[in-house]
Design goal:
CATH class of one domain: Alpha Beta
Largest sheet: 6 strands, mixed
Number of helices: 20
CATH architecture of one domain: 3-Layer(aba) Sandwich
CATH topology of one domain: Rossmann fold
Bound molecules: pyridoxal-5'-phosphate
Shape: globular
Structural class: alpha/beta
Radius of gyration: 21 Å
Length: 432
């Protein structure tokens, strides 16, 4: 498999180079040169295969000769070491993607990319690389955790002081080893602009090899397709015959786009619903045919506060840039914070299930669609454990949310961060 820039089909490269570079040299996204097709016999066998067997078959064509089958297997068994259960919620299923080390669905993509990048960077050069990321809370933990202990890579992570939840802060600041947390006295935007400045600062880049753990990296995007196959497997094993309808809480549209990739490779899926908060750029596009990026609006489902979703071009590409074709398989919808809170209450009161705000937005989208198009296989993706958004969940439902077992120990660990007030602090830290 080679990868090609979506804006220039002469810019082709290997999986390894696409992972190292992140973006193509023309700043466009990389995209696979062809969509592999699964044999009907593989689809039939899915209910009988282990998650690892499914993952190996799913990912193999995309990594090509850059990872041996045994290396791929090592990486995948590391990254998929937890469950992806479907919970019955009323007439629907919640696909719980939060059982990983940082309680967020990004653990799989971030972990896979980190391990690939660690390996490729070691192959390519002796110099250590520094991954520099800014986080508003959720992504940073998954990225940092993915790179924890990966040789040849240091991770420097900037987060806004006092603006991430307690568990998120612990996840960023207690890892140790090759991970350093810089606690910035400012907003997420301040963190982001410091990172951007560092990447173009010659004093730094001449001495330190900086890398971004960008969410559009093909190694972060593609493995997310596995969730959809695992859900299909579980539905089949529960005797459900309908092809699933997937409602996906979407921000940058990476997750849903990976599901649509699996569909184009042959996975039976009946429909995809992109569920947004009020950041509704794609809803507008589906209504008008005109794509116009918007300013980001802050919401309670803040991991989806994206006004210009970068992966949407990949979705269009999967459907030959034809909105008419896309409409047959894909719907987009948008909900306000007030609607999201009502949905969280409804899910709790009627089904005794605690959804986080992102999952609740997806539930709303699923409910609206299946009212018109009934199915026995309606699945909404629950992308974060409710304890990661504890303030909203506790105040909306008037309950206390317990931390899951696998992160409880973090709360007793000591926070280690370096207070950072401006760009010069970051620069001298990187150069020291
Ligand atoms: C990142 C994130 C999303 C959005 O995923 P995209 O792939 O960017 O669409 C949804 N929910 C949670 C909890 C997230 O962290």
């Amino acid at each position: 498999m080679k990868y090609v820039s979506l804006a220039n089909n002469e810019l082709r490269t290997s999986f390894k180079q696409a992972v190292i570079q992140g973006l193509a040299p023309d700043k466009s996204l990389y995209y696979p040169t062809y969509i592999p097709q699964w044999k009907a016999s593989f689809i039939e066998e899915i209910p009988n295969l282990s998650n690892l067997e499914i993952a190996l078959e799913g990912m193999r064509p995309f990594v090509d000769q850059d990872l041996s089958l045994s290396d791929l297997e090592l990486i995948l068994s590391d990254v998929l070491s937890f469950d992806f259960p479907l919970q019955k919620v009323g007439d629907y299923y919640s696909l719980e993607l939060f059982h990983g080390p940082t309680l967020a669905f990004k653990d799989v993509g971030a972990g896979f990319m980190a391990r690939c990048l660690g390996r490729f960077i070691q192959d390519e050069q002796e110099q250590k690389a520094t991954v520099l990321v800014a986080t508003s809370g959720d992504t940073g933990g998954a990225v940092a955790n993915g790179f924890l202990g990966v040789e040849g890579i240091d991770v420097v992570i900037l987060y806004p002081s006092g603006k991430v939840s307690p568990i998120q802060e612990k996840q960023l600041t207690t890892l140790g080893q090759n991970i350093t947390a810089l606690e910035v006295q400012g907003t997420f935007d301040d963190c982001q602009s410091m990172v951007k400045k560092a990447f173009v600062d010659g004093d730094i880049t001449s001495k330190v090899k900086l890398t971004s753990a960008n969410s559009i990296n093909v190694a972060r995007w593609i493995p997310q397709m596995l969730y959809y196959i695992f859900a299909y497997k579980t539905l089949k094993n529960n005797g459900i015959q309908d092809a699933p309808v997937f409602a996906v809480p979407s921000g940058n549209f990476g997750n849903i786009c990976a599901g649509m990739l699996a569909y184009k490779m042959g996975l039976p899926v009946s429909h995809f619903i992109a569920c947004n908060n009020v950041n509704d750029t794609v809803v507008d596009f589906m209504n008008t045919g005109v794509y116009r990026a918007k300013d980001t609006v802050a919401t309670i489902s803040n991991a989806m506060d994206v006004g210009n979703p970068s992966n949407f071009v990949r979705i269009l590409e999967l459907f030959n840039k034809q909105k008419k074709e896309l409409e047959l398989d894909f719907t987009a919808c948008s909900y306000s914070d007030a609607q999201t809170k009502v949905a969280m209450q409804e899910i709790y009161e009627q089904f005794n299930y605690v959804a986080d705000p992102h999952g609740a937005v997806a539930y709303l989208g699923l409910k609206a669609y299946t009212t018109q198009n009934p199915t026995t296989a309606g699945v909404f993706l629950e992308t974060a454990h409710p304890s990661k958004f504890i303030d909203v969940v506790e105040s909306t439902l008037d309950i206390e949310v317990a931390l899951p077992e696998n992160v409880r120990h973090l709360m007793n660990r000591e926070k280690q961060s370096i207070l950072t007030s401006n760009y010069e602090d970051l620069k001298s830290f990187l150069l020291q």
